[in-house]
Amino acid sequence: MADMVRTRIAPSPTGDPHVGTAYVALFNYAWARKNGGQFILRIEDTDRERSNPASERMIFEALHWLGLSWDEGPDVGGPFGPYRQSERSEIYREHAERLVATGSAYPCFCTKERLEALREEQRRAKVAHALGYDGHCRAVPPAEGQRRRAAGEPHVIRLAMPREGETVVSDLLRGELRFDNTLVDDQVLIKSDGYPTYHLANVVDDHLMGITHVIRAEEWISSLPKHAMLYRAFGWDLPVFCHLPLLRNTDKSKISKRKNPVSLNYYRRAGYLPEALLNFLALQGWAIAEDREEFTLDEFIATFELSKVTLGGPVFDLEKLTWMNGKYIRKLTVPQLLDRLRGDLLSDEYLLKVLTLAHERIERLEEFVEYASFFFVGELEYDAEARGKLVAKKCTPEQTALALERLLEESLDQLLEWEPARIEETMRAYCEATGWKTSDLFMPVRVAVTGKAATPPLFETMAVLGKEICRRRLRRAAETLRAMKAEGNPGAHGGEDEKP
User: Fold this and answer.
1) Could you tell me the CATH number of the domain that includes residue 413?
2) Residue 132 has what pLDDT?
3) How far apart are CA 288 and CA 478, in angstroms?
4) 397 with 408, same domain?
5) Do 221 and 280 lie in a common domain?
């Protein structure tokens, strides 16, 4: 196995499947396939509060939709399982104890109150580097630490980082990276509840699963000295590290849902072809030729060289992706295009959901097209009547825009079970927490997601549209409301001084 290339993708099931996950997965998949190796899917669900089985299912579905299959994983098994970190807790505890026994890690008994006081003291002193643990419990003699642990005193296990010198690690794309050890704190490895942190679980799993190339986003570079120190403390050889450049918005900021759709569910629901999206993601770090932008996944794999990934900040340009998707659509024959439409946007399953909502509300079959049009389009245009209804009663456009954004970011974004009852519960809870009347806020939401004031029941409609379309439309509505403010329109229902 030592000579076989083994790569992995290790997403956390804490939200919608992210386009960044697909980007990193693609490069791991391509390098494994290029070298006749194996590609592994591992679920990193050590965050017990946020991890969700629904998110895990969406990760599987999204990667399968893209055509990125894995050789080992939670759903297919393999020789190095389990492939969910939540099922490997005893493995991590055993390895942490090995580190404690050799002095490479130690129990820390500091209370939350002491740690908070330490952080506050560092803030007041304006510590130049990042705030971190001061190593207080490193002075606890091993025998005393063992006695306190045996007595059941709450504690964590921390990595004993060197207090001087540098940690030097090679990166395939960036060469030798050097880290001042005085700026790296003693990372928690095992939390007080006995569960591991990402750092310990990540290193232990990569080693035990035989991962030869750790290909991940550059945001993990700051963790590299801790990970390298763990490998060395265990006496293990380091894998090849390769940190890919982050996907960025057109303004060069890190890609985020505020400026671009980031969920793979959106791109599938909006009618992007998986082959077009893969082609576009490959271009974020690779060029098959100077004068060629279109290539298949097989062509990418055949020509791919990991060491030649470009480090310039790749721009996730939605307009370019849409342009490329159009080119891929035009390559389809008409029967192929019909099959694609039936597969998603015009599937029997989706049409039945829409028809169920429209059934009692049309008099002639032809009325269905107009009545249900908002179920089949991407972006909405808000006419004069709709713009008036977008503004909540006794509110300004700006106040309504802010309410829609907060509803999305603080409530709906966290909802994974996108079904009518859960949507209603979440929206009513938001209104209760913020003082909004449901009758005042629900109309702007209805118009935002449908473009109309008269529609089927709101929560059922939102469930059929899907989370990603609703998210996109709520943001578009907020932009429209702010444009109304810029135009000097105080709104249909009130002036600047009126509050919800």
Assistant:
1) 1.10.10.350
2) 83
3) 40
4) yes
5) no
Catalytic residues, by residue number, are 257
How far is it, in rounded angstroms, from Cα 122 to Cα 67?
49
Quick count: other Cβ atoms within 10 Å of Cβ 305? 9
Before 261, cis peptide (omega within 30)? no
Q: Which residue has the tokens 């990166």?
A: 171
One-letter amino acid for residue 46 of the chain: T
**3 state DSSP class of 326:** helix
In sign, the C-alpha dihedral spanning 472, 475, 481, 482 is negative
How does residue 491 score in pLDDT terms, banded at 50, 70 and 90? very low
Buried b (16+ CB within 10 A) or exposed e, 279-290: bbbbbbbbebee
**Confidence at residue 65, expressed as pLDDT on a 0 to 100 scale:** 96
Question: Do 97 and 165 fall within a single domain?
Answer: yes
Show the domain range for 441: 374-486
Q: Element (H or E) spanning 198, and its range? A: helix 198-208
- Residue 171, classed as helix, strand or coil, is strand
First to last CA, the chain: 65
Q: Domain boundary residue among 203, 238, 273?
A: 238
In this prediction, residue 124 carries a pLDDT of 84
| 258 and 273 fall within a common domain | yes
Q: What is the pLDDT of residues 7-18, one digit of tens each?
A: 999 999 998 899
What type of residue is 165? G
- pLDDT > 70 in the chain, percent: 95
Average pLDDT, whole number, for the chain? 92
414-422 average pLDDT score? 93
For residue 200, being part of any structural domain is answered with yes
Query: What is residue 248's DSSP assignment?
Result: B
Between the alpha carbon of residue 243 and those of residues 68, 238, 325, 479, the distances in Å are: 20, 14, 28, 35
Query: CATH code at 71?
Result: 3.40.50.620
Decide which of 179, 213, 238 is a domain's last residue: 238
pLDDT at 254: 84
- Please check whether residues 232 and 252 belong to one and the same domain: no
Contact 398, 478 (CB under 8 A): no
Closest-CA residue to 425 (of 468, 472, 459): 459
How many CA atoms lie less than 13 Å away from 300 in the CB half-sphere?
26
Helices 348-358 and 458-465, axial angle in degrees (round to 10)? 160
Per-residue pLDDT at 324? 96
Total domains in the fold of the chain: 3
User: Is 231 found in the same domain as 141?
Assistant: yes
Strands across the sheet with 105-108, in order? 105-108, 156-159, 188-190
Q: What does the pLDDT look like over 470-488, one tens digit per residue?
A: 999 999 999 999 998 666 5
Say how many C-beta atoms besides its own lie within 10 A of residue 313's C-beta.
15
Q: What is the pLDDT of residues 230-281, one digit of tens each?
A: 999 999 999 999 999 999 988 888 887 777 788 999 999 889 999 999 999 9
Q: Using DSSP bridges, classify how beta strands 6-9 and 240-244 pair: parallel, antiparallel or unpaired.
A: unpaired
pLDDT score of 485: 66
